[in-house]
C-alpha cells in the first residue's frame, strides 16, 4: 500500500502568501510532504496535520513581547493570534514545527521570548545584506540538532529581516549565529522538534543543506504520525 505523505500546515501572510506559499509547498513536496495553506481569516485545523511551518512576512506586534510600536511597521494582529495559537496547539500535540524568518521570531515569542526590533542597530558588526541570494554567512552551533542535520561548517544563507531574537523563550537554545553575534537559528532542546531559522530556505531549494531543513521537518512529522497511529492501533501508511 502506498504510504501517504505527511501533511504540513503552512501559515502565510494575507498580503504576500500568494507568492510565498507556492515556494514553501514545493520544498515540502520535494522533502516528502504535502502542504496545506493557512492564513488569518481561515480555520487552522491542527488536528488534521502532522507538522507546522510558520512562514515569513509581516512584523509581529510588539504587544506580544513588550516592545515599542513603530509607525512604519507592517502588522497583522489576526495573523499573530492565529500563529501563536497554532504553535501552542502544536506543542500540546507534540507536532514538529519549522519557523521561517518571522516564524522563527514567533516561535520564540510563543515560548515567552523577546525580539530586537532593530537588530542591525544592536549588532553593528553583523553583515547587513538584504537579498534572496545566499550571500550571508551563518555559523551552526556545535552539538545542536541543527548542526547535526546541516553540518557544523559555515553556511551561506539569504537575509530579508530587520528584527531578530533577543531573549530566548523557554526550552529554546541558540542553533546558529552570524559573525556579529546575532541569533540566526533557534531550536527546542527537547521534543517535539522545533527549529526556527532567520533566513528563507524556501528560496534555496537547490542547496542540499537548505533542503535538509525541510527533510528534517518531514521526517519528524512522519515519526509523529507513526507514533500516534501506533497508540491508536491503526496502520500509519493509511492515515
Provide an overview of this structure.
With 239 residues, the protein is an alpha/beta fold. It has a single domain, classed as Rossmann fold. It has six helices and eleven strands. The protein has a nine-stranded mixed β-sheet with strand order 2-1-3-4-11-10-9-6-7, sandwiched between helices. The protein has a two-stranded antiparallel ribbon with strand order 5-8. A hairpin with a 5-residue loop joins strand 10 and strand 11. Helix 2 crosses helix 3. The termini are close together.
Can you tell me the CATH class? Alpha Beta
CATH architecture: 3-Layer(aba) Sandwich
Instruction: Please name the CATH topology.
Output: Rossmann fold
CATH superfamily: Class I glutamine amidotransferase (GATase) domain
Order of helices and strands: EHEEHEHEHEHEEEEEH
Overall morphology: globular
Features:
239 residues, alpha/beta, Rossmann fold, two-stranded antiparallel ribbon, 11 strands
Brief overview:
The chain has 239 residues and is α/β, with parallel strands linked by helices. It is built from 6 helices and 11 strands.
List the helices and strands and how they pair.
Elements (H helix, E strand, L loop, with lengths): L6 E5 L5 H14 L3 E5 L12 E4 L22 H16 L4 E4 L1 H9 L4 E2 L2 H4 L8 E10 L4 H6 L4 E5 L4 E2 L6 E7 L4 E6 L5 E4 L10 H25 L7
Parallel strand pairs: 1-2, 1-3, 3-4, 4-11
Antiparallel strand pairs: 5-8, 6-7, 6-9, 9-10, 10-11
Helix pairs in contact: 2-3
Amino acid at each position: 500500500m502506498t504510504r501517504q505523505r505527511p501533511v504540513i500546515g503552512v501559515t502565510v501572510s494575507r498580503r504576500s502568501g500568494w507568492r510565498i506559499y507556492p515556494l514553501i509547498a514545493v520544498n515540502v513536496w520535494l522533502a516528502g510532504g504535502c502542504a496545506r495553506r493557512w492564513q488569518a481569516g481561515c480555520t487552522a485545523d491542527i488536528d488534521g496535520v502532522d507538522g507546522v511551518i510558520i512562514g515569513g512576512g509581516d512584523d509581529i506586534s510588539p504587544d506580544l513581547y513588550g516592545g515599542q510600536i513603530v509607525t512604519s511597521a507592517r502588522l497583522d494582529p489576526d495573523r499573530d493570534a492565529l500563529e501563536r495559537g497554532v504553535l501552542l496547539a502544536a506543542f500540546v500535540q507534540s507536532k514538529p514545527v519549522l519557523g521561517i524568518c518571522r516564524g522563527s521570531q514567533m516561535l520564540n515569542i510563543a515560548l515567552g521570548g523577546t525580539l530586537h526590533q532593530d537588530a542591525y542597530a544592536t549588532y553593528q558588526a553583523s553583515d547587513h545584506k538584504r537579498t534572496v541570494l545566499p550571500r550571508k554567512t551563518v555559523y551552526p552551533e556545535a552539538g545542536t540538532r541543527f548542526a547535526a542535520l546541516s553540518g557544523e561548517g559555515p553556511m551561506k544563507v539569504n537575509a530579508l529581516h530587520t528584527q531578530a531574537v533577543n531573549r530566548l523563550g523557554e526550552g529554546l537554545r541558540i542553533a546558529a549565529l552570524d559573525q556579529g553575534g546575532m541569533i540566526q537559528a533557534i531550536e527546542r532542546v527537547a521534543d517535539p522538534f522545533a527549529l526556527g531559522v532567520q533566513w528563507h530556505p524556501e528560496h534555496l531549494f537547490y542547496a542540499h543543506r537548505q533542503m535538509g531543513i525541510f527533510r528534517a521537518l518531514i521526517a519528524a512529522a512522519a515519526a509523529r504520525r507513526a507514533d500516534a497511529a501506533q497508540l491508536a492501533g491503526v496502520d500509519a501508511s493509511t492515515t
